[in-house]
Each structure stands twice: as C-alpha cells, then as structure tokens.
Structure prediction request, 1044 residues.
Amino acid sequence: MNAPALVLRGVHKTFGGLTAIDALDLDVDDGEIVSIIGPNGAGKTSLFNLITGLYQPDRGSITLHGQNLVGLAPHQIASAGIARTFQTIRLFLNMSVRDNVMAAAHGRTTAHLWQSVLRTPVAQREERQVRAEAEELLGFFGERLIGYRFEQPAYSLSYANRRRLEIARAMATGARVLLIDEPAAGMNPAETHEMTDLIGRLRDERGYTILVIEHDMHVVEGISDRVVALDHGAQIAQGTFDDVATDPRVIEAYLGLRTAETK
Amino acid sequence: MSLFLQLLINGVTLGSVYALIALGYSMVYGILKLLNFAHGEVYMIGAFIGYGVLTAVGGPAAPVVPVWLLVIGMVVVAMLGSGVLGVIIERFAYRPLRNSPRIAPLISALGVSFFLQASALLLFTARIRSYDTTEFISLGTGVDIGPARISLVRLLAIGTAVTLMVALTVLVRQTKLGRAMRATAHDREAAAMMGVDVDRVIVATFFIGSALAGAAGVMVGLVFGRIFHLMGFVAGLKGFTAAVVGGIGNIPGAMLGGLLIGLGEALAAGYISSTFTDLIVFGLLIAVMLLRPRGLLGTPAVDKV
Amino acid sequence: MTPIGTDEWVAEAEQRRQGDSGPLAPLRRGLMRVPPVGRLALLVAGAGLLPVLSDSTFVVRVGLNALLFALLALGLNVVVGYAGLLDLGFIAFYGMGAYTYALLSSDQLGLHWPTELAILTAVLATVVLGYLLGLPSRRLLGDYLAIVTLFFGQAFVQLVTNVDRLPLPGGRTLDLTGGPNGITGVDQFRLGMLHLRTVQDYYWLLIVVFALAAVVFFNADNSRTGRAWRAVREDPLAAGALTIPVNRLKLLAFAVGAGTAGLAGTVFAAVQLGVFPANFTVTLLIMVYAAVVLGGTGSIPGVVLGAAVISVVPEILRDPDLSRFLFYGVMVSTLMVLLRPWRVLAAVLVATVAFGFAIRGLVDWVWPGELIEAGGGGGKVADALGSWVVMTPGNVLVINLAFVALIAAVLTLTTLRPAVRHIGLPAVLYLSAFVWENRLVTDPSITRQLLLGVILVVMMNVRPHGLLGEPRVEIT
Prediction:
C-alpha cells in the first residue's frame, strides 16, 4: 500500500535464559495501523522497549525509513520519529497538562539555556510557538484537555484523560510513528469506544503511522489495518483481524490448548 | 613479609567492622530501597553504649566482673541499645514517609544523622573517650603467625564478627523470619498479600541491622580504643561503600565488600599513604560503580516499564 | 464529563485546598499575587534597607551570610528542586570556588590575578568539577548518587586538608592549600575601578549578584530547559522516550548548580580574606539543605525564605535573651496553631505553668539550697523563669537524662490520641524548658545542629513541600 516506515529484521532479545523476542520480523507501512496482540508475557511491551531504545536487541536490525535505530539512545530514537505511550501511564505528574505536552517538544526545539535566560527574541518566539502548538494538540481531544485544564497538574486528571494526555505528549515530539501501549486498558465501554475512534482519527486526520498493543478485541477489530499475533516473542500469525482471530495457533496461544505441540 | 602480614591482619579486623556496618545498610536497602544515612550514627551510639557498660562495671582498670563477661556484656548491651535505636528511627523518621517522593526519606535520614550527632555531642561532649582495652586485655597475649602476631583483642573482634555473620546467615536462610525478610525484599506488596506482616519484617530488619552496627561500634572501641561523636560519619560512608562494592541488598556481598574495603584501606595505609586512605576508598567506590554498578555479587536488574 | 460543571468545581476546590493550608497560607497567597518581578523588587529593596537602617557591621555581616546562603540555596535548588538529583557534594563546589579564587589571588602561589579573571576561572573550574562529578550520575540510581556525592564532599575536605606537602619531582614539596591552616591573605575584589573593602561593599555586591541569579533561575525554570529538568525529575524514563536527552540535562543541572556554588565561594573567600577546610564541612551542607527543604524545593521565593531563616536563627541563638525569646515565642505560637479551641490552649498553658511551680517547689523542698537562680540577662522574664524552671546546670547526669527523656516523650506524644496528648503536654513542655534553660541556651552550636536535624525530619514528615513550595504527588 505504502512505503515501509518501520522495519524490524531478525530482532532477538533474551533476559538471562528467557527469550523475550525471538528472531522477529515486522514491517509497518506509512499510514498503517498495526495491532500487536498476544497473551500476557508474549513479548509485546518488550518489543516496544526494543524499538524505542529502552532495551538493546542482542541481534537484528531496526530501521525507520531506512535509518538504523539500533544503538541509539531513547531520546535520539524519539527525535528520529518514534514516540510512545506506556502501559502503566507515565505522565510528568506534577507538571501542568500544557507543560507535559510542551516538554515533549524538547527534541524539535533549539533554544539554549543562555538564550532562555536572556529571553532572546529567538527563544521567546520558539516558546510562544511551542505553547500554541501544545494547545492546538490538546484541542484534538475535544474539550477534555483544554481551557482551565491547561494549567492543572497532570495528577488531577481522570484515568481516561491521562491516557489522552499521554497520546498528546507523544504527538508533540513531532514523531510520525506512534507506539501506543494498551490505550483502552482500564476504560469503560464508552471511553473504549471513543479511544477506538481517536486512534482512527490520528491516522486519518493527522497521518500518523500507528503500532498499537491492545487486549480488547473490539478495539483491535475496530482500528487495525493489520494484526500481528505474538507468542513467546515470536510472530505466530499476521494478516487481517478476521484471519488472525480465526488462526488456530492464535486461539491456542490465548486459550492455552496444548493439544498439538507445534514447537 | 612481616609488614604485609601485619597489614593483612589489620585489614581483616577493619574489614569485619565494615562488614558488620555494611550488613545493616544492605539489609535495609534490600527491603525498603532506602539509604539509611543515620546508620553510621547508630554505630557511634553503639560504641558509646559499650563504653557506658565498661564504666558502669568499674572502668577498664578495675572491672568488677570477669573480662569475658565484660566483653560479652558490652557487645550484647550495645547491640540491644543500637537495635532499639534503629527501630525508633524507622518508626518516626522513615515509616511515615514510605509513600512520599523518593527524596523525602533520604533527607529525613540526613536529618536523623545530624540530630544524633548533635545529641551525642550534647550528651558526651566532644571529648575523645578511650576504652583503654590494654588495661584489661593484655596486648601481649595473642597468636603468632610467622613473624606477625594477632593480638587477643583482634581475634576477639574477628571472632565476634564471624559469629554474628554466621548467625545472620542462618537466620536469613533457615528461619521463618528470614523467609519473610527475603520475600519482602523481593516484592513488598506481594509479600504483604501472601500474609507476611511487612511492618514487623521491617522493624526486625532495622533491629538486626542496627544491632550489628552497635556490635561493630564496640569492636572498634576495643581494638582501636578511641571513640568520639563524629566517628560514625566516615565509618558509615565506608560501610556503605562496602555494601555497594559487594552488591547492595546482598548479604554475602556486604561481608565480602567489607573485607575488601578493610584490606584495601589497610594495604593502602601501609604501602601508599595513611592520609589518603579515604580518598582511595572513594576512588574504589567510583570505580566499582562505573564498572559494575550492581556490585561484585549483585545481579543485574531489568527496568520494569 | 462535561467540561464545565461539578468536575471543574471539584478540581478547582481541590487545588485551592492543597495549595493554601496551614498558618502561612495568607502569606503565601499574598506573595503569589505579587508578580515575580515585584517580589524580587520587594526583596531587593528590603535587603537594601538593612545597611541603611543599621550601621552595625555585625548586622550587615549576618545579612551578607543570608545572601550567600540564598545564593547557595538557589544553586542547590536547580539540582535538587528542578532536576530532582540528590547532590550531597554540593558544598565541595562552594569550597572549590573559594579555594580556586584564593589560590589565584594570594601569596600562596604568588599569584594575584585580576579579580574578574580569577572569578571567571574559579567558576569555570567548579563547573568542570560539577560536570565530572555528574558523569557517574548518568549511570547511578538516585540513592547511589547521593552517597557518591556525599563521599565526594568528604574527599574534598580531606584533600584540601592534606595537600599541603605535595611531593614534587626533585624532593621538594609544594604547599598547595595550606593544609588545616588554610590560605590567608586573600585579595579583596577589585572590579574595574571599584575596590571592595568593607562588609557593606560585599553586601551591596551580593544583592546585585543575588538579584541576577534569581532572574536567571526564574527564566531558566520557565523555559524549555526548565521543563525538561522537571520532566527528568518526574520520570526520567518517560522523558527519554519523549526526545529529552536525560543525561545531558542531569549534567547541565549539576554544572549550573556547581557554578553557582563556585561563584558564591569566590565572594566568601574574598570577604573572609581566607579559606579554611573547616568552612566546607557537612554542617554547612545540612544547613543549605535545611534552607531548601524548609522553604520548599523548587520554589525560588521558598528557598530564599529558607536561607534567611536558616542563616539568621543561629545568630539569634548566640544571644541568651534573644534565643530565650525565640524559644518561648516559637513554643507558644506553635501551640496556638496546633491547639484548638482556645480553651484547650489556655488549659495547657496554665497547666504547664502550674506544673512548673509545683516541680520547682518540690525540688526546693527535697534538696534545699541546691538550685541556682536562672541566669542570663536579669529582668522580669529571667526572674520569673528562675522561680519556675529547676536550674541545675552543673548536674550533667540529670540534664542528660532529661534530654533523652525529652526526646522519648516528644516521640511518644506524636503517637498518642489528641485528648491523651493534651494531658501529657504540660509535662513535656516543662521538660523542654528545663533542658533548654540548663543546657541548650548556653550552647548555641549544639542547639543549632539539633535544630537543623529536627527541621529536616519534621519538614519531611509534616510538609515535604516546604513553607512556600507546591505540594507534589508521586505514584510509586
């Protein structure tokens, strides 16, 4: 459909004797929404950690539009264009909603400390611009994070709003690829439905390429162009939601039927 | 050769003191992930309690009890006193802060340390006290190893340390409390859900760790004689270094670390310069942290994301 | 979930409640209404009045110390408050600045560099040192960093105490730091045409330096870098994943903090006309920390207030009358805040007074003639105290026991239910007055140390965000 954006080839990661990711190949095209599914401990979050540089792969390559990412520090990978959210939401709790978003613009701004201290015109202009962008970004989530909310500390937000703010923060990095870890976890049905819409809008209105980990199959069905199923760190199936959902290996991995040991 | 042997003996003596201090740091850190800055001060108070016992039974020149009983009494009373002190510190300075920002208990610990130092200054004044060990344990007695000699008091100190460490190892490995301690160190919440009384475990840990520091204080008093209100600060730093070198949270590691720091310090004092031993230990700390941040016996941890 | 309605109201009320509670709430509210520039102007104007109002060198010297302290606290605030790094080697940078300036501006090495150049070199040297000490911090967890830096501070003092006989090739030795005797005869500042001679001169200089520093740090806090520092403090891992170069920012915080301390150090060396290892001990470190913690980490007005309190209180303690006034004043005002309704307060105060006379009478009856009258200053207050407090300053054992009992009693009180606590309070208050009059009032340095320790512990327990800081939450 499009040019491949994120490409993983033969990525391998072990912890002690435990294989977290096993010779994984993965392609994500520009503008695609790919869902990663799999039982707990299948290596989904490890995969995100490998892509974003929190873990270093033992073997294999990870590239974004042909640029090698292996060996880069997390902030360099983020600046290269991959931003993420966390399964256990990790906001800057004691900073305001707006500051959370503005902080994430660090990588694409340039004002040095001395420029900020002296309030040079360049620094002032940049500050105003980042602020306006942050407010515009927060507006993407409807009325929820704007107005008086700008000044509120992140810890005062509801759970669902924290998830939204985390996504806003990832968008503010200027990345074109978003890695979203369990966006619907802990949400009620209405919020889950809204999150499904939101992820679709992220791609349709803003053109993001999205890799998402999700357990809620309604969400996965609703958003995915393609689904990749992992088990024990290896890809066991991929394709459309219907293909993957009916794949016997996937069903086995989820239900733990060990009738046919295929390993 | 004789010098080397003598330094070795010095190093092992010093090392057993550091090991005892390091154990307290390490155990507390293992369970609470808290750096107990006041630990060095607990050790200092232990040394003064030992001195108090010595004075109470008639002083070094004319103790009214047999020498063996005197030494045991000093160690036991100091251990009890320091243990209780440790428990009090935990109860009032750390427990209320268990769910605060990480930096809060550290600053509180710093405050406790400073408060204890000032209290000791108030109670005991700045005068340096001496155990005058030679008055009741003759320097002449001891065991000859080749050209060098281990004096009885050093043997006593090393023996006490080894006994305590063996006892601790048995306690941690074999008893129900030990199991609870290991479980709590591994995962406090999970342990609590499995029915471990976490508060009790923490209290026990502070008591044991502080008691060991108290014993170390008495040993230092016996072997090196001089005790004063500032002695806890540097000893605490060294004990902590020992814990880090061995791998913090790791009990055999603390013992090994203590021994290494003691030996390193003694050898450095003998062959390089006695004025710069602290700097050398500091260099060692930095080196270990850069080369093996988890210490010699520590296991690498994976960040949970 | 409507944007306007209960949700908003609850959130706002909550915020108001959290931000403004406690006895200092009106002060805080008033302060926050004044724009930052106005606050600074008020402070500078107030500080500037001091040498005008008082021509006592002593008073100006206390003010100078307060300003030096405020400068140190501002620097430490960057490291601890903004970036969240527990740097316990901070005082070493102060010492490094002082020693570097002293070496370049004294007969020690026979160097007398121009003041501007010496200051610049000293600050650069501290910045480099701060950077170097920050390097291991990249790999260290917060707690490890604390101990490494604490050790570093200790190592610095050891080093300057001992490099007075540095062996040189050729068998000679070099006296670099003067050892325990320090470096004396340090040059005063000559900035352009200005030759700074008196304490007053340095006081004016420090007002300027402090005002500049406050502006610099305020702007830094409200900038891209300040936001990134706070992000690193809140969650370094998330910060890294969001394009923030965590290690570089930690090093920057270290270097900025160190440079500020270094600058303060040069002024200190020049005003003291010398530097000594004993100037840079852990006590000073604790004092700066107490200042930052008391005022509120991360808050510029907070740390300035903290610095003022921490540097002025020890001076008050030196004078028995003033310190007595402070002691009883703080005691009564604390009770006034904590004890409600006023009937309880009155009952406790009356009970305390009665309890005192009873004990005093009893002791006089059992050991007649043993007690001495309360000393210090005379006057009605002292006389009244003398017939109330048992005075036996020579009886070390009793006083020591009373001190230990006081600590035990205070700790026990905190665990009791309020009703029971009120019953025990008079005895404890009397006991504290006894310890105070017999021991503490005569030994201001110990009192100061005890006070600093207590401030750190109590503030962390009661109000970890300090007097003027923003309350923070942390989910672990």
Notes: Confidence is low (pLDDT under 50) at residues 259-263 of chain A. The longest helix of chain A spans residues 121-139. DSSP finds ten helices and ten strands in chain A.
